[in-house]
Amino acid sequence: MPAHLLPWAILIGYVLLLLGLDYFVLHKKDSVPTTRKAFLETLFFVGNALLFTGAVYWFFKEGMVDNPNDITPTKAIMDYLSGYFIELSLSVDNLFVIAVIFSSFKIPSNQQHRLLFLGILGAIVFRALLISLGIILINKIHGMSIIFGLFLLFPAFRMLKKEASHEEPHQPKGLSKLFRFTKILDGGKFVTRVDGKKVFTAMFGALITIEFTDLLFALDSIPAIFAVTTDPFIVFSSNIFAIMGLRSLYFFLANMLERFQYLKYSVFAILIFVSIKLMTASFTEIPEWFSLLFIALSLAVGVYVSIWSNKKE
Asked: Which of 166-175, 217-226, 300-309 is least confident?
């Protein structure tokens, strides 16, 4: 195996190992995770994401990845952590939408993990395609980073205009013309029979809606990571580790999502920051330590203000 392919093989193998452990060991039975279990699983996935920083450092130190921009091992770690926390923070908005999707399709709690797991598998494929396309556009089209920066302003201000948690999810337009749907769950099956005809269940409708909304969120979050780096390995690895932990994070926060109502302002601040960073990248450079510090402080302030507001009420 060529040396520059080894890091990718290790990354993909590690991700598949974690996914297999999650599905076949941690959740081999359709049961509702307790808050304590979801919290421990969240720490497990966050810990693995942070542990992978050692691998990133080693890959860049030994010259095992294509590195046309001569990124130092230390900068590679900072870029990876910045990308990871950007994606994780932007995914908070996605958690609210997932909660509404489950409620709208009346998905029982013991079936939600399977849908989230399948949603993550689809997200991995979509993210890989969008990241590849985005990197090609940035490298081929001069000023593309400015376009991405302007694009990020739309989801930022849209977030302030309406509450994501109050939005009613819709199936992708045209989907009902291609598939016959029923509101029946039929024990968690994706296909059932009604009056002798095969139809897709509410489980399948929820899965398609989750995949569609994740694709829309990816259009926001991937350009944001390009403000940090355009290195394919760092962008993909940080992105994939962030979305892998969303399932356990969702179950941990399922009963507390409404309590963190001020996190949307933290996400707004992060989007504005990375938008400015993208648009000014050609004539000024914002240090990675400052980016990481800004992201961490924004999230911390949002959590603190939310908790303080709840206690006051």
From this structure: 166-175
127-161 exposure pattern, b = at least 16 Cβ within 10 A, e = fewer? beebbeebbeebeeeeebbeebbeebeebbeebee
Q: What is the DSSP code string of 49-68?
A: HHHHHHHHHHHHHTT-S--T
Q: Where are the domains of the chain?
A: 3-312
pLDDT at residue 296, as a whole number: 81
| C-alpha–C-alpha distance, residues 26 and 33, integer Å | 10
For the chain, the straight-line distance linking the first and the last C-alpha, in angstroms and rounded, comes to: 60
Q: What is the rounded CA–CA span in Å between residue 195 and residue 198?
A: 9
* Distance from C-alpha of 287 to C-alpha of 281, rounded to nearest angstrom: 11
| Cα angle value 169/175/180 (rounded, 5°) | 110
Q: Which of 242, 231, 297 lies closest to 270, judged by CA?
A: 297
Q: Are residues 93 and 261 in contact, defined by beta-carbon separation less than 8 angstroms?
A: no
Provide the pLDDT confidence category of residue 165 given band limits of 50, 70 and 90: very low
Buried b (16+ CB within 10 A) or exposed e, 43-81: ebbbebbeebbebbbebbeeebbeeeeebeeebbbbbbb
Retrieve residue 2's tokens: 């060529």
Mean pLDDT for the stretch of residues 126-149: 80
CA distances from 305 to 89, 92, 261 (A): 16, 16, 9
